[in-house]
Amino acid sequence: MRAQRPESGRVDAGDDVIRRVLVVDDSRAQRRILTASLTRWGFDVREAESGDDALGICADYAPDLVLSDWMMPGMTGLEFCRAFRDMPRETYGYFILLTSKSDKDEVALGLDGGADDFLTKPVNAAELRARIAAGARILQMERELTDKNRLITSTLDELQSLYDSLDSDLIEAKKLQQSLVSERYRDFGTAEVSLLLQSAGHVGGDLVGMFPISDSRIGLYGIDVSGHGISSALMTARLAGYLSSSVPEQNLALQKTRVGGFAPRPPAEAIAMLNRVIMSEMETEHYFTIALADVDLQSGQVIIAQAGHPYPALQRATGAVEFIGQGGLPVGLIDAAEFQQFEVTMAPGDRLLIHSDGVTECAARDGALLDEDGLSRILRDLRQTRGRAFLESLIWRLSDFAGDADFQDDISAVLLEFRPDPMPG
């Protein structure tokens, strides 16, 4: 630290971190000697003749540097140092004990009591200035660290505020995404449809739905957009419009008839149209898998096109489970991709589960996946559980398997159940 001689009798400590100094000594002569040197070097100096007086001064003055004699009547310098350390301060105060003690145990005791340095009495002026300069360097580093910590705290507060705002927006976004599946259950008489949509985060990339085709036919679909989060959720919102249940004119799975009504478009053709739309109109790196089904509620005939989506599970009335489908390419990867469809006939008591890979790829704590075998076991175990109760039980079983209710992937499913034949009366 460069000492500056005050001009015109005024103290000018500039930007030095040590400006205010407190000298504590029961000897008035010792205080005067130290104060004279410190004042000449440009410091603002206060004096105290005892530890008690010094504490009173510190309450209002908050010195940057304390020079205190160790041996004083009443409160010793070491006791004062401990009390000084207990006082609340915004910045660190540097403490130098003045002592004739040179024993290492005594020095260790002083350091343990909170002292930063020692000066042997009588005090040499050059050594005093050197010790003050060393203290100034330490305080400078402490002030810089404090400023950086304040900046970090301020930045963290701003980030927390932004996070809270984003979290609030995501909560609203989750409500909006869940509203895309406005109807979770419908009884069609001969069959029932139940829907499940549970995102791993606030919002996700899964979507399920159903739409009417005619009095005896319905469409069902399960979609899984690549990735997670906001961008995937935005894509599901766009796709919901292309398979709308309320605006059939916009539904790519339907086509107008000559008499003004709507008829089903073959599921494979509808998925091909979705692929063209994604490749030509959407500037995105996302792709998605889909299983799209055309269901005849009277005959039990189900036509399904599968584009990269997990194989649907078909459970017969006997309880036997089989996984059906042909796999296929996801949508949005290849221009002019072709998609295939297949048919299955469901009988009374049969049920079909169209599910996302969040079900079969649900992982246990040891990393083992549920897989199709695990899902088959759940379907057989819950054979007598139907509708929404089955889907709720499915979530519980997955939670037990994973050991955690917070899944790593979105969970979605469409459950189509044909009513069993009535028991002969």
TrEMBL record:
InterPro entries reported for this sequence: Bact_Sigma-Reg, CheY-like_superfamily, PPM-type-like_dom_sf, PPM-type_phosphatase-like_dom, Sig_transdc_resp-reg_receiver
MF-aspect GO terms: phosphatase activity
Record-level GO BP terms: phosphorelay signal transduction system
SMART domains: PP2C_SIG, REC
Gene3D superfamilies reported in the protein's UniProt record: 3.40.50.2300, PPM-type phosphatase domain (3.60.40.10)
Keywords associated with the record: Hydrolase, Phosphoprotein
Residue stretches making up the Response regulatory domain: 20-136
SUPFAM superfamilies: CheY-like, PP2C-like
Lineage: superkingdom: Bacteria
Residue numbers bearing the 4-aspartylphosphate modification: D69
Pfam families linked to this entry: Response_reg (PF00072), SpoIIE (PF07228)
UniProt keyword Hydrolase present: yes
PANTHER family the record matches: HAMP DOMAIN-CONTAINING PROTEIN, STAGE II SPORULATION PROTEIN E-RELATED
UniProt-recorded name of the protein: Transcriptional regulatory protein WalR
Gene (UniProt): walR
